Each structure stands twice: as C-alpha cells, then as structure tokens.
Amino acid sequence: MFDYLGVLVSVIFGLALTHLLTGLSRLIQKRSHVRVYWVHVVWTANIILYVLGLWWGMYWWKHLQDWTIERFLFLSGYASVIYLLSALLYPHEVAEGLDFEAHFESNRRWFFGVFLLAIVLDVPETLSKGVSHLRDVPSQYVVFVPLMAALGVAGFAFRDRRVQGFVAAVVLLTLLGYLNFTSLERIVVR
Predict the structure, then answer these.
(1) End-to-end CA distance of the chain
(2) For residues 154 and 144, is the Cβ–Cβ distance under 8 A?
(3) How do residues 132-171 score in pLDDT, each as one tens digit?
(4) Which are the contacts of 120, defined by CB distance < 8 A and separation ≥ 6?
(5) To which H or E segment does residue 117 belong?
(6) Residue 185 pLDDT greater than 70, yes or no
(7) DSSP character for 98?
(8) Phi-psi sector, 93: left (phi>0), alpha (psi -120 to 50), beta
(9) 3-class secondary structure, 35
(10) CB 19 within 8 A of CB 60
(11) Axis-axis angle for helices 69-87, 38-58 (nearest 10)
C-alpha cells in the first residue's frame, strides 16, 4: 500500500518543489525587472528544506502493514497542504515590475495560516509513526513544534519587516538544526 501512497505523496511534494524552484528561477532571471525581497527568498529556502525533510520522513511509512482510508486521506491531505504552502510564495507568472515584498505581504496571513496548519498536521503524523513503532519520535520534537508554531503565529500577527526577517531567519536555523539532529540518520531497510 505504501508504494501506492508514496507515488501520490511524491507527485504532490514534487509539484511543490517544482513550483518553488520555477518561481525562484524566474525571480533570478527577471531580477532586474522585479523587486526582490530577501525574506521571501529565505522562505523559499525554508519551504524547500521543509518539503525535502517531510519527503524523507515519509519513507518510514513503508514499514506499516495495516493501512486505512483515514490514514491514506490524512497523509494525502497533509501533502496537499504542503503544496498549498509552496504555491502561496510565488504567483504562477512572474510579471515584470512585481514587488515580491508586496506579494509576500498580500499573502502573509494565508501563508502563515497554512504554515500553522502544516505544523499542526505534523504532530499526528509524527506521533502516529511513533505509536506504530515505525520510528521513535525525536526528543528534539518537543522543542521543534512549539518553536515553529510560535514563529508561525509571530509571522501571522506582525507585519513589521524586522519581525518578518527574524521569523524567516529563525525558521531556517530551526529547520537546519532539526534536520541535522533528527533526519540525517540513515534509513535502514528491514
């Protein structure tokens, strides 16, 4: 069953990465004709790392034997939320004169609302892997989730550029630290 779900999740995560990388490449190509916002670029890196970390972490589901439609729908829905998070960072077309700070600000509350939803959905996904004895819940998780949620709330609540820059930078450092301490371990195929 996992192979079936894995293809769907891979397609959705692949679309998320494609959207982010396409948007970033268009931003680079049109850099002299658009207004680049460094916070937006950091968020692009953040979500790329987040998608890759989640994609890596989904592999542990391969060892689950008993699948239900609820779990299938939940994991498919979680992946879809991650795609939506990616899609909110870049418009489908990067028009000349686009101000990425204005674009980010116009989508800020939606972006952080979806970001918070992703963090909330990560909790049952991660705990379910632990309960199903697929992977131990990392000890760092009890710091990671509340910190990411607090940063998401700050990003949602505060428009100030300094706050937005702080949130983006701390999320990047938090993701790098969490991935370094928890996800870079080797997945052992049983």
Answers:
(1) 16
(2) no
(3) 888 888 889 999 999 999 999 999 999 999 999 999 999 9
(4) 149
(5) helix 100-131
(6) no
(7) -
(8) beta
(9) strand
(10) no
(11) 160
Q: Strands, DSSP E only, in the chain?
A: none
**Helix H or strand E encompassing 189:** none
Q: Is 99 helix (H, G, I), strand (E, B) or coil?
A: strand
Model confidence band, residue 115 (pLDDT cutoffs 50, 70, 90): very high
Residue labelled with tokens 């370094």: 180
What Cα–Cα distance (Å) separates residue 5 from each residue in 1, 74, 79, 138, 166? 6, 11, 11, 24, 37
Q: What is the C-alpha separation between 65 and 157, in angstroms, rounded? A: 42
Distances (CA, A) of 132 to 1, 2, 78: 16, 14, 18
What residues contact 108, with CB distance under 8 A and at least 6 apart? 155, 156, 159, 164
Q: How far is CA 80 from the centre of its chain?
A: 11
**Vertex 24 angle, CA 101 and 115, to 5°:** 65
Sorting pLDDT into bands at 50, 70 and 90, what band is 6?
confident
